[in-house]
Specification:
By secondary structure, the protein is an alpha/beta fold. The protein is built from seven helices and seven strands; from the N terminus they run E-H-E-H-E-H-E-H-E-H-E-H-H-E.
Length: 274
């Protein structure tokens, strides 16, 4: 029996990167897991697998649990509704929602130059199309998925929501502006959600990762090999499993009196209050 045996967890944006590792980790704790990507082959975009279906089989076999793959553009309310219906048909409920879908990916998608980062990415010159894309990909997705999932948690007086934000949303930047703004917005949305859900016993918190090594992180910027270590000075990069273990803390009894908080996973890169 794992810590999450009997729970159902939906991890949005889990075809690759941090989300993929989070889904695998929750399954290792006994949860039945729903993985998600924009398309059935989102795993292929940066070489992280053949398909969502194959990834689901891999996680299920590794941890002897059930894994359901769903796909679609979560900025589309009808797609969100369809995903939620499929999950409830299979499992009957959603206990844990990990709002991970998002990122600093512009209108040309993750396979474009710099792994999808807009070329003009400051506060003045970024094209409005890119502003809309990035804000919708992060904030609109978070809101639509939460609205579709959380009312049933409120009825049961039980549930856990973790939004994956970013330390970029906790300070000013001269680049990656739309991404920083969108992550600041999902942080604040999740705090507002936590305030509303207190009487229902439903938790809502934010994880704000720092520089976490994933295939897309490496494809989108220069990286340093000397920082790709898993111990030693905390000036190193972080790893997705370190984010996953922080999420474990927030969806188990270890955090039974914690809600509405922003937990950085950044090795101390930012030391001021969130």
């Amino acid at each position: 029996m794992g810590r999450l045996t009997g729970r159902v967890a939906w991890v949005t944006g889990s075809s690759r990167g941090i989300g993929r590792v989070v889904a695998d980790h929750l399954a290792s704790l006994g949860a039945n897991v729903v993985i998600h990507g924009t398309t059935p082959t989102s795993t292929q975009q940066l070489g992280e697998g053949d398909s969502l279906a194959a990834l689901a089989d891999e996680i299920a076999q590794a941890h002897n649990t059930e894994v359901l793959p769903v796909h679609g553009d979560l900025t589309d309310e009808a797609v969100v509704a369809g995903n939620v219906a499929d999950i409830r048909e299979r499992f009957g409920k959603i206990d844990i929602l990990i709002n991970n879908a998002g990122g600093d990916i512009g209108s040309k998608g993750v396979t474009a130059e710099n792994a999808g980062k807009p070329v003009q990415n400051d506060a003045i010159h970024i094209p409005l199309e890119e502003v809309d894309t990035i804000i919708n990909r992060n904030l609109r997705t978070c809101i639509l998925v939460t609205r579709a999932v959380v009312p049933e948690m409120m009825e049961r007086n039980e549930g856990w929501v973790v939004t994956v934000g970013s330390i970029a949303g906790l300070s000013g930047h001269s680049s990656e502006v739309s991404y920083s703004v969108s992550k600041a917005a999902v942080h604040e949305y999740t705090k507002c959600l936590a305030a509303q859900l207190r009487p229902n016993g439903v938790y809502a918190n934010v994880i704000a990762p720092g520089e976490i090594i994933t295939p897309r992180f490496e494809a989108s910027r220069p990286t340093r090999d000397d920082r790709k270590v898993d111990q030693g000075p905390l000036t190193r990069y972080g790893w997705p499993i370190e984010v996953a273990k922080a999420i474990e803390f927030l969806v188990t009894s270890d955090s039974s009196y914690i809600t509405g908080q922003v937990l950085r996973v950044d090795g101390g890169a930012q030391l001021w209050p969130a």
